[in-house]
Amino acid sequence: MTANIMRDPGDVSAARHRLHVISFVASKYVPVIVLFMLSIVIIAPMVWTVSTSLRKGTESFTVPPKWLPTDLAVENYAQVFEKVPFGRQIINSALITWGTVVGQLISAALAGYAFARLEFAGRELLFWVVLATMMIPIQAVVIPVFIFLRNLGLVDTLWSLILPAVPTAFGTFLLRQYFLTIPIELEESGLMDGANQWQLFYRIYLPLVKPGLAVLAILSFNFHWNEFFRPLIFLIDNDNFPITLGIFQLQGYMMTGSIAVVLSGVVMSLVPVIIIFLIGQRYLIEGIMRGAIKG
Amino acid sequence: MTTAKLQSGGGLWHWLMQDTMDGLRRRRAILGYLFLLPTLLGIFIFTAGPVFVSFGLSLFRWNIFKPPDFVELANYERLMGDVRIAISFGNTIKFTILAVTTQVSIGLLLAMAVHRVTQTAMRYYFRTAFFLPLLMSGAAVAVVMGYIFHKEFGPLNYYLGLMGVQQIPWKTSADWVLITIVIMSAWRNLGFTFVLFLGGLSNISREVLDAADVDGAQGFRRLWSVTIPLLSPQILFAAVTGVIGAVQVFEEPFIMTRGGPGNASRTAVMVLYEAAFKNIEYGYGSAIAVVLFLVILAFTVVQMWMSRRWVFYQ
């Protein structure tokens, strides 16, 4: 800079200096401004959903679109429960998700521990078999599973969704990674203190992999709360539907009616996932990144 | 109570509970099998076994009227001649390529931009904003976007109109409908690729980036020869999981367009669903499932094979 000032006549150097400052400021702030505008575009559909869900039917599909809630028409939310058995469906979603998450935590913690810390013949082979099944999409097995569940008499029950979802290759793999990070010395000192094999697992290891359990619980909660394909096939009766099918039904009934009611259903379906996200976003994001690091 | 009795009785219990290294090893091995039992059994019943059953079923004709009838490859022959299926698989492959490219490239750009933001509150805001759509169910996204993309009353066409763009028939034109579904699914899945790449960027060691600075790598060159190679494991992961997810696309077209107009947004999973659970043809449905599985496998194998050339582990 100083060299420039000495060589150039005053005016030019000042202009150059200004250009430098401008390009510096631009490179610092332009990306942020662009990001900010993009973030608004990305959030806009959600904002529109919430504000439209609070509008009167006649005001719900306006041109130009409105962004702030105008009427606070909470009766839309009440109407959701009249059109479909939404209360029942919320409970169904909660039961399906709760059962699946708890089942996955138990079975995957046991299996992940076995693969990480116990030695037995065929361990590597079994581990690769489990990993390989992660590649299999649900559609490739849905027909035999449906026939099997029907023969067991489980079709159109919540069990048809919970039972097949409990064994989890992904969860087993994830928790194995967490168990592997725990120093083996802890186990030795546990044995010195006279702990038996079950106590080693339950008292020493399990509390130390709580973050892993949280990651699995949150990912699994999100996935199964939002599931659509399996419920569509395995369930028949409205009263057994989860909330995702409820929204689908609402949309079908409302083809000509008020979209505000449909959007009220959407908003209600989002509340639990948002709450869980706010509580556990650290785990959720960690879970996503973990998958890639070792995978 | 029985412990004492069994212990004195010796035999199996004694063999297992011996206070020696051998006894310990045996106990741990048996515990290992016991701990694996629920998961292995479950995976065998609900995933590994049914894959083979699907292959087997695809060789049968089986509908509500008749008992299963072994027909060899007839289902596959029928599938080859079925225009609707050809269109649906074509749509699925087109959708997969477009959707994965979009969500990986935009997610990468967003992550690089946010990575440069130093202020904690702003980083937090951007991270949350880009991640939020991922929390919505596919069903909710399809319902909401069905309204947003409405030709006459949708907010999107209104704002495009202000910019002088003619009303776009997002859902009702065969030329547009796949693009519409790509946009919807990219909107939702950006959160995933974005968070993945942001994590990858924060793992890149400072020294490497400083060395790039010293060498004068800037702008596009730096992106191409420094950042992308360093993020290649995450990019591969995003591409592989992205493809597996995209090939299974279902809710969005099923709820928003019912596969239309015509067959323009019908996908592979939709024809599988229709064959097996609307027309109750389990054999034919299984044949579609097998082909779908092979498509996913082919995509994955090609990606893994190509990755040997470009993925670089730090």
Summed up:
The complex is a heterodimer of chains A (295) and B (314). Chain A has 295 residues and is mainly α. Helix content of chain A is 75%, strand content 0%.
Task: Give the SSE map.
The complex is a heterodimer of chains A (295) and B (314).
Chain A: H1 2-7, H2 10-53, H3 75-83, H4 86-117, H5 123-133, H6 142-151, H7 159-165, H8 169-180, H9 185-192, H10 197-208, H11 210-225, H12 229-234, H13 243-253, H14 259-294
Helix pairs in contact in A: 2-14, 3-14, 4-7, 4-8, 4-11, 8-11, 9-10, 11-14, 13-14
Chain B: H1 2-9, H2 11-17, H3 21-57, E1 60-61, E2 69-70, H4 74-80, H5 83-116, H6 120-131, H7 138-148, H8 155-162, H9 177-203, H10 206-214, H11 219-247, H12 251-256, H13 268-278, H14 282-310
Antiparallel strand pairs in B: 1-2
Helix pairs in contact in B: 1-2, 3-14, 4-14, 5-9, 5-11, 9-11, 11-14, 13-14
Count the DSSP helices of chain A. Answer: 14
Report the biggest beta sheet of chain A as strand number plus sense, adding barrel if it closes.
none
Report the structural category of chain B: mainly alpha
Largest interface: A-B, 90 and 92 residues
Overview of this protein structure:
The complex is a heterodimer of chains A (295) and B (314). Chain A has 14 helices and no strands. With 295 residues, chain A is mostly helical. The N terminus of chain A is likely disordered. Helix content of chain B is 75%, strand content 1%. Chain B has 14 helices and two strands. Chain B has a two-stranded antiparallel sheet with strand order 1-2. The radius of gyration of chain B is 27 Å and the shape is flat. The N terminus of chain B is likely disordered. At the A-B interface, helix 2, helix 4, helix 5, helix 6 and helix 10 of A face helix 3, helix 5, helix 6, helix 7 and helix 9 of B.
